[in-house]
Amino acid sequence: MTKSADDIASSGQQGNDHGHGSFFGRRKGHKLRHHQSDLIEHLLPRLALDLDSADASDPGSLFDTPVNELRLEIGFGGGEHLIAEALAFPQTGFIGCEPYVNGMAKILSQIEAHNIPNIRLFAGDAAELLAWAPTSSFKRIDLIHPDPWPKRRHWKRRFVQDATIGQMSRIIDPAGEFRFVSDIDDYCSWTLMHMQRSKDFAWIAERADDWRMPWPHYTMTRYGRKADREGRKAAYLIFKRTNS
């Protein structure tokens, strides 16, 4: 059964209500414009990933045309990076995860404007998506400028945890990658500590510019440009899935 837009939106709040999962942020911000509301009502249900009905054994079947590989972006914000990647790699299937309604409305506007066929959207908890995905199904997972949850009592809400790293190691292809971007030094250190104690990933940086500079063809997000203007320098961390 196809879920309505209200069902899709409310599903993203469930993890928050139960006090677990990867996303604990606000669901809504500014009031949506009429066209944005129309996209949430009519376009989102066509692109939404419903974990209850989707074929977990063949996530490539989510797309109308064949795709060569799958990538996942967790917390895509306004969608600038995800849109650019989907346009640059039309044979790749992209799944974007974002519980924030305004972010979902922004990316739907871009998908409609560019008629992008290779993006599917998940409005719920990223941890549920990781648990649903089959083994070695994704070539790459991107986490770009996630909420750092700076207060110590909220650190358990950060996406990068031992449990999520374990799930990522299961669903990322043995030759795949996890890419992380943040302008918050503490969260970068946290991520390095957690990732480097995992036997399943290796940080590939060989020199300072490998993490101080964006990787080639990286699309800066609106938040990234704001951070740069305010003097906060981001780190660009790439972890390769190992065969250990």
TrEMBL record:
Enzyme Commission no: 2.1.1.33
Source domain of life: Bacteria
GO molecular function: tRNA (guanine(46)-N7)-methyltransferase activity
Binding locations of substrate: K151, D183
Annotated binding of S-adenosyl-L-methionine, by residue: E73, E98, D125, D147
Family: Belongs to the class I-like SAM-binding methyltransferase superfamily. TrmB family.
Protein's UniProt name: tRNA (guanine-N(7)-)-methyltransferase
Organism: Afipia massiliensis
Gene that specifies this protein: trmB
